[in-house]
Design a protein that fits this description.
Layout: E1 2-4, H1 7-15, E2 30-35, E3 39-42, E4 48-51, E5 54-58, E6 64-69, E7 74-78, E8 84-89
Parallel strand pairs: 1-6
Antiparallel strand pairs: 2-5, 3-4, 5-6, 7-8
């Protein structure tokens, strides 16, 4: 997973060839390669957002990565029954 500032900034960086593979010893250019699974993400309020993150693939080592906007990082969220759970996907809004 690669955390990017925004989806728009990631698209621009991909177009300009500025995103490189994070795997140790590689560092080649990443290119668009399909999409991650569609997920329903709950904001800090009660709004649910439909998200389908961009996947990228390294030209050299062929590893794949998901580009996740920084606002959608997993953080402490509320599960069923209102208990706090780590790893729940929610926005910072």
């Amino acid at each position: 997973m690669i955390v990017v500032r925004t989806a728009e900034a990631a698209e621009q960086a991909l177009t300009e060839g500025q995103l490189v593979c994070p795997r140790r010893g590689c560092g080649d250019t990443l290119r668009r390669w399909r999409y991650g699974r569609r997920r329903h993400v709950r904001s800090l309020g009660s709004q649910v957002i439909d998200v389908r993150p961009q996947r990228v693939r390294c030209r050299r080592c062929e590893s794949t990565h998901v580009l996740l906007p920084a606002a959608l990082q997993p953080r402490l969220g509320r599960g069923g029954g209102g208990q706090l759970r780590p790893g729940v996907w929610c926005t910072g809004r």
